[in-house]
């Protein structure tokens, strides 16, 4: 009888221990699988990662409690490799939630817009990277029936993490916000133009866009801006090849020319009918011809004044030759082999 009692007690103890062990295992599993707060709003993947490498990164940054639980969830949803980009995270997420997020296309894509690009070229890059609103972005920059773009010049050229499914307006606002931050740091005293009137910010940006396209030599930017200001104050036509190339790019985008921007400007290009053609019209163009970077903006906001009124590119030196008079300018043209 005593032996039976001991057996019963032993069975109860073993059963209790087993039940306790199972309860602990189950609770531990739930703990590992439950949603936890995400410290970061965005997770950035700089290169293609395997699911295992991602799991290690997620554990290191406190987004999951262990890698194996995440890998089991990744296998369940079919996640093997993670695409480059930024992934927006919820306030709380479980390993399975995260596996689903990283299985989808990234929410943010890294895009670089070089200095001097037009909104048209920016739209082309967005299209190449499969942004949902690439076509709408171009329409927003160049509304049908308008001559002057409302966005050109204010889309700051830089590297961004942009929402691939964002609206055209949302994308433009991100670039314009950055432009605003840069513009706020420019010198407050504007240069004086015709009749000693200070240039408006819009005019400074337009001047900067010409400088950006006219020279790629950092040491020349402020000097080129000064030459253009000298011509403006004298009432001379600016005669910037860059403005003519902008006309070509816009006409090509509208299907009016087969070829857009090109490295050389021909005499026949100088007759293109457009208010942006500074060979035909005096003063600054009606708006920027590209989206200038910070260096060009600073050069336009604080031009280097000089006695020069002309410049021509010397291809062999990779720099411009500057002249005070038209006779000097003609001599420089011969020296440059133009």
Identify the notable features of this structure and list them briefly.
338 residues, mainly alpha, 3 domains, two-stranded antiparallel sheet, 12 helices, 10 strands, elongated
Q: How would the blueprint of this fold be written?
A:
Layout: H1 2-33, E1 36-37, E2 42-45, E3 49-50, H2 51-60, H3 67-77, E4 81-82, E5 85-88, E6 92-93, H4 95-103, E7 108-112, H5 119-128, H6 134-141, E8 159-163, H7 168-183, H8 201-214, H9 221-234, H10 241-253, H11 294-301, E9 310-314, E10 319-323, H12 326-336
Antiparallel strand pairs: 1-6, 2-5, 3-4, 7-8, 9-10
Helix pairs in contact: 2-3, 3-4, 5-6, 6-7, 8-9, 8-11, 9-11
Task: Describe this entry's structure for a reader.
There is one protein chain. By secondary structure, the protein is mainly α. The chain has three domains: 38-106; 108-183; 194-336, no CATH class. Helix content is 46%, strand content 11%. The protein contains twelve helices and ten strands. Strands 1-6 form a two-stranded antiparallel sheet. It has a two-stranded antiparallel sheet with strand order 2-5. The longest helix has 32 residues, at 2-33. It is elongated, with a radius of gyration of 31 Å. The chain starts with a helix and ends with a helix.
């Amino acid at each position: 009888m005593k032996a039976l009692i001991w057996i019963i007690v032993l069975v109860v103890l073993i059963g209790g221990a087993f039940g306790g062990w199972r309860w602990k295992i189950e609770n531990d599993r739930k703990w590992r699988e439950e949603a936890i707060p995400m410290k970061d709003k965005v997770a950035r993947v700089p290169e293609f990662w395997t699911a295992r490498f991602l799991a290690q990164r997620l554990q290191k940054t406190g987004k999951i409690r262990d890698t194996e639980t995440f890998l089991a969830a990744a296998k369940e949803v079919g996640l093997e490799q993670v695409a480059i980009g930024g992934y927006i995270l919820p306030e709380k997420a479980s390993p399975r939630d995260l596996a689903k997020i990283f299985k989808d296309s990234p929410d943010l894509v890294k895009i670089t817009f070089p200095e001097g690009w037009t909104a048209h070229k920016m739209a082309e890059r967005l299209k190449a990277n499969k942004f949902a609103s690439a076509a709408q972005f171009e329409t927003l920059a160049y509304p049908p029936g308008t001559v002057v773009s409302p966005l050109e010049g204010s889309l700051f050229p830089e590297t961004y993490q942009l929402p691939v499914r964002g609206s055209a307006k949302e994308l433009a606002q991100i670039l314009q916000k950055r432009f605003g931050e840069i513009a706020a740091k420019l010198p407050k005293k504007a240069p004086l133009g015709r009749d000693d009137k200070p240039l408006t910010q819009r005019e400074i940006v337009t001047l900067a866009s010409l400088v950006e396209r006219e020279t790629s030599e950092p040491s020349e930017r402020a000097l080129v801006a000064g030459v253009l200001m000298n011509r403006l104050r004298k009432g001379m036509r600016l005669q910037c090849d860059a403005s003519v190339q902008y006309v070509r790019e816009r006409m090509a985008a509208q299907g009016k020319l087969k070829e857009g921007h090109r490295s050389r400007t021909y005499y026949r290009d100088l007759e293109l009918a457009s208010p942006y053609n500074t060979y035909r019209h005096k003063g600054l163009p009606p708006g920027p011809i590209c989206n200038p970077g910070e260096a060009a903006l600073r050069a336009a906001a604080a031009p280097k004044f000089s006695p020069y009124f002309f410049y021509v590119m010397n291809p062999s030196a990779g720099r411009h030759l500057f002249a005070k008079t038209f006779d000097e300018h003609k001599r420089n043209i011969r020296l440059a082999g133009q």
